[in-house]
From TrEMBL:
Subcellular location: Golgi apparatus, cis-Golgi network membrane
Recorded family membership: Belongs to the GOSR2 family.
Pfam families: V-SNARE_C
GO biological process: protein transport; vesicle fusion
Name recorded for this polypeptide: Golgi SNAP receptor complex member 2
Residues annotated as transmembrane: 196-216
Organism in which the protein naturally occurs: Macrostomum lignano
InterPro entries, per database record: GOSR2/Membrin/Bos1
C-alpha cells in the first residue's frame, strides 16, 4: 500500500510538471527576441526535470504488485511519450527563432552593402535577393515538415491510446475466463514488443525530420 501511495503522489507531481512546461513553452513563443533564449533555457530545465521524474516512475512501477503493475506502466509510458512531445515542441520553437535571426542578419547585411553604379550592382542585388528567397523557402519547407511530423506523432499517440484500451479490455476478458498466468505473460511480452516498435517508429520519424532540416538549412 505504501508503494501505491508513493506512485500516486509521483503521478500527481509529474502531471503538475507537465502544466508548468506547457506554460513555459507559451512564454518562449511570446517572448521578444532578446528574451527568448532565457525562456528556452527555463523550459529546457523543466523538461530535463520531467525526464528525471519519468525515470523515478519507472522504478516505482517495478515495485508495484503484479495486479497493479500493468496499469501503472501504461501511465508511466504515456508520461514518457509526453516528455518526447514537449521536447520536440521546444526544438521547433528554437528553430523558428534561429530562422528569424538569420533572416534579420541577411536583411541587415543587404542594407549595409555598398553599391556602385555599374552592372555589378544589379548582379549583387539579384544574388542577395535570390539567396534570401531561398532561405525563406527552405525555412518554410522545414516548418511544414515539422508540422507534418508533429501531426504524425499525434496520430501515433491516438492509435497507441486506442491499442491500450483494447489491450486492457482483452486483459479483463482473459482474467474473467481465468486463463493461465503463462498466457498472460506472453501477452504482456507482445505488448512490450509493440511499444518498442512504436518508439523505433518515432525515432525514425524524428531522424527524417532532422535530416530534412539539415538539408534545407
Amino acid at each position: 500500500e505504501a508503494h501505491q501511495m508513493s506512485i500516486d503522489q509521483q503521478f500527481q507531481q509529474t502531471s503538475r510538471l507537465i502544466r508548468e512546461i506547457e506554460a513555459a513553452l507559451q512564454r518562449v513563443e511570446q517572448s521578444p527576441q532578446d528574451a527568448a533564449p532565457a525562456a528556452e533555457r527555463e523550459a529546457q530545465c523543466l523538461i530535463d526535470r520531467f525526464c528525471s521524474e519519468c525515470d523515478r516512475l519507472d522504478i516505482l512501477v517495478g515495485k508495484q504488485p503484479a495486479v497493479r503493475r500493468q496499469q501503472a506502466k501504461l501511465r508511466a509510458d504515456q508520461f514518457r511519450y509526453d516528455c518526447q512531445h514537449l521536447q520536440a515542441s521546444l526544438r521547433q520553437l528554437q528553430h523558428r527563432r534561429v530562422a528569424r535571426e538569420n533572416e534579420e542578419r541577411e536583411r541587415e547585411a543587404l542594407l549595409r552593402t555598398s553599391f556602385t553604379p555599374n552592372d555589378s550592382t544589379s548582379v549583387l542585388i539579384d544574388r542577395s535577393l535570390a539567396h534570401n528567397d531561398s532561405l525563406n523557402t527552405a525555412n518554410k519547407r522545414v516548418d511544414d515538415m515539422l508540422a507534418q511530423g508533429r501531426s504524425v506523432l499525434d496520430n501515433l499517440g491516438d492509435q497507441r491510446a486506442m491499442l491500450k484500451r483494447a489491450h486492457r479490455g482483452m486483459l479483463g476478458v482473459l482474467n474473467t475466463l481465468g486463463l493461465s498466468g503463462t498466457l498472460m505473460r506472453l501477452i504482456e511480452r507482445r505488448g512490450s514488443q509493440d511499444k518498442a516498435l512504436f518508439f523505433v517508429g518515432c525515432f525514425v520519424t524524428l531522424l527524417i525530420m532532422f535530416l530534412v532540416w539539415r538539408h534545407y538549412s
